[in-house]
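Feature request, filed as a ticket because there's no other form

It would be nice if the structure record came with a short human-readable summary line next to the tokens. Right now we just get the raw output. Example of a typical job, pasted below so the devs can see what we mean:
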Amino acid sequence: MRIKTIIIANIAEAFEDTINKISNPKKKRDRILIEHNLCDRTLLWEGDNKVVITPYQISQDIFSINKSALGFKNVQNLFPAKINISLSDAVVMDNELFGKLCCLIKDNPGVRIAPYCVTEKFVLLIKRLKEKKLKFSVLEMPNEKSRWLVSYLDSKIGSRIEIGRIKNIHDNVPSGIMCKNKEDAIKVILWFFENNRSCVLKANFGESGWGTVFIKKEDFRDNKEVTEYVKKEFKTDSIWSNELILVEEYKKPSKKLSSGSPSSELFLTEKGVKITYLCDQVLGVKGDFLGVALGKKMFDRKIASELRRISLQVGKKFWKLGYRGFFDIDFILSNSNIPYIIETNMRRTGGTHVYDVAKELFGSNWEKRCFVMSQDSFHYGDKNFEEKIIVDKMKKIMYPIEGKKEGVIISIINKWKPTIGFIIISDSNKKALKIYNKMLKIWAIKN
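Raw output as currently delivered:
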């Protein structure tokens, strides 16, 4: 059967520059593993008839169970013998794997190669494949003159500059100050505090909550406390080293959504701009990304319409600049229902696999037929269990429960920590939460 897609799950590689700034070897290794650990969920991208190249082998029990649950007939998983940060590098350096990749393309002319993110290392991998005169496509690849856009628009400051040039969405961008160093950032933070305003400290290339610090005015008594708190953060996290910093006005999120932080994902090709889905993000107390919720009755119609309007405006702007591929827009929804753009991320997102599963199981009308929620880092206890034990404990609530289109799909099994990722599928929010509560009971976790 013909292979339609070859996925390059280069997740850690997307953050290589930031990871390389971590001076502590253990912290650096831990950060690499955090990113590589997400590779299990890439099995759920792009439907059937594909090869998924990952940093490590996808958990075998999850591979077989999810193939069956989603009806995949033609899926392979390949991985390099050695891996550091860059998967693209590892593929090129592994002669056996690179040879297999070349053979796959030769046997499936015109196959699409689809990365997590277009990086300099991925571009070099594509260059090597083109030197072999192989026939394939990369829909996500900006033309050579526009590749700088990936890094520029992925930065907090670059995206803010370009979005600020869109005339009819000025009111949807919080006020913010760009700072050249940590000293200037502290001065701006104190200006917000002295004016009785909360703010958010953002590293220019932060991701998934890493490099984001909330400075809420009610949490501090005076300037000294604020300064000490910020200086401690600067000292303990290398992400602030040699970085431009954004200090942005804090917008209190609406309580009408679980997090008050909706997000949209878009896909830009030569044909134009497409919104793939809208979701509500599930965030931790520090603003760290945990998962998403999407589907039936997710948003009020007016809010959904406004999110789509703003997203299309941003998408068209980025498309005209020359960007191609996936990206998402994260918002904060205020109590007055105004969506404020918080950032853009120029890559596939933490909800891509959730959307792909919903679309695979329920078709193009998925948004009216199902409710889906996910989490990528569910901590189930104090010690690691083998894959088979995890699956056995969860079997009563695994998708499909009694043949119905509902239940849990395990998306990730962490190889190093007692943590899993999951997707819960049902036809309503209430039923999904009931399944979630059953999962908490299975693991003896109090809600």
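Something like this underneath would help us a lot:
The two ends are 46 Å apart (CA to CA).
The CA atoms of residues 18 and 292 lie 25 Å apart.
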